[in-house]
Every structure is written in C-alpha cells, then in structure tokens.
Description:
Number of helices: 4
Helix content: 25-40%
Strand content: 25-35%
Radius of gyration: 63 Å
CATH architecture of one domain: Sandwich
CATH class of one domain: Mainly Beta
Largest sheet: 5 strands, antiparallel
CATH topology of one domain: Immunoglobulin-like
Number of strands: 8
Amino acid sequence: MSISRRTARTVRILGVASASAALALGVAGNALACNIRDFSAVATCDNGKGSITVTDIDASGKEATVTVYLESNGADEKKVGSQTVKGTRKGATVTFSEDWAPEAQYRIHVDVPGLVNADVSPTLTTSAEGCASPSPSPSGTPEPSTTPQPSETPSESAPPSSEESSSTAPAAPGDNAPSAAAGESNLAETGANSSTPMIAGIAGALVVVGGGAVFFGMRRRGASKTD
Length: 227
C-alpha cells in the first residue's frame, strides 16, 4: 500500500511541529532551572555588627545549601556557616553574622543536588571602611548638673545699705521749726491770705453807702414834718 503525496506532507509537517515544541520546552526548562547566576552576596553593617547576606532569585524554588568561607591568601581560613534557602522570583535571603574586617574576602559556595555545585562569582570583598561601632561621646566634656543650686540670699546680719540708713536717720535735736507747708496751712485756716484787703475795702464802701442812705432818709423825714 503506497502512501499518497498529501499524507507524506502532513506527516512531515507534524514532525517539524513536534520538534519545535520539544526544543521550546527544553529552552524553557533550562531557563527555569536553578543556576549559579541566581545567587548574589553582600556584606552589611547594623549598629556596628557585621553580617553577610546571600540572595537566591531561583524561580523554580529548588532548595540550595549556601556555605560561607573566609579566604586568606587564596585558601579557606575558616568556615563562617552553612544554611539552606529556597529561591523565589522576588528573592529569598539568608544572613550570616560575621564581624568582617575591612577589605576581607569571602567565598560563597552553592550546592543544589544535580543542578549547581559552584562558587558565587566574583568573590565577595568587604568595604575599606570596615564595620566600626558608633563612637561614644568624649569623656572630657562634663555633663550639665541637674542638682539645683542654693539661691543667694542676703545674710540677716548684713549692714543696711546707704539708702536705708539715710531714709531712717533720726531728726537733729532742736529742729522744731515748722516747715513751709505747715505755715501755708495755718494762714489758710485764719483767713490771712491775699484776698483779705479787697474784702475789707468792699465792706467799708458798703458801710459808707449805708450811712449816707440813712442820713438822707432822716433828712427827708424832717423836712416833711416842717411842711
């Protein structure tokens, strides 16, 4: 039984499509697979205490074992610690407490069974400033005292001031002459002031006028009787 030309073409198209799908799935699988580029490390300080933080951005979520070593002259000087982490697309972190020195080098090794067994590149090098704790305040600066100081009150036995002594000095003996104010008040009470002569003049004029009126009245009365 022979295969028609149309059937052969259909089979060939299906084969190409299957191969393309397999290739695409392989590429996608490799893209999602965990690799050493998913890991990074940084040395940080918090209140004078150093630490090393490793971040895993493996979207597949494979469990990885992270080990940190302090390097010296290209060899491991000491093992800082080892922890496991499961990566996420946003990034999962593990932190190692380490009082790192300035410009120290650390090797970060990652182990994911069957996928990754390598060191993070490049090697982690700490900053040149170091991770120093905040400096205390100078001891030579005295702190202000909170103890209240006693107020300065004058002594009871202190001599009076010159103003007080002058205001309370006793009067000299024999000084009994009345003051000017006292003399003026006596004149006002007896009526001896500057208007007294004028009042006396008016009173005298009234007496003269009254006497004349009486004289002319008596003279007129006498004339009327003689008539």
